[in-house]
Design a protein that fits this description.
This protein is an all-beta fold and about 120 residues long. The protein contains no helices and eleven strands. The strands form two sheets. Strands 2, 4, 5, 6, 9, 10 and 11 form a seven-stranded mixed sheet that branches.
Length: about 120
Amino acid sequence: QVQLVESGGDLVQAGGSLRLSCAASGSILSINHMGWYRQAPGKQRELVASITSGSSTNYADSVKGRFTISRDNAKNTVYLQMSSLKPEDTAIYYCNAGVAYYSGTHGYTGEYWGQGTRVTVSS
């Protein structure tokens, strides 16, 4: 009923910038929290940044001051602006959202994940 599609991953040199996007679609009533996670090879998935429906944000210490999360509620889209990228930022980045949606005449809530977009930062 709900799909998340990420885009924007690429190969970039250290010190460069990228902007990731994640668009939610489907039978959406509202989106609560949205966030970005990442998983590097051989490591567990970790939270990078999150944003509430009221636009309160939270960042991992490793990205504070370099990454900015934002959302466009009219487009059901969340963004991650990444600057001053480091090789250790290399990972697959996943979008996550808590979504209220409808199916028939009933409403439901669920957690959804995108398929991931790869970010590679070369030194």
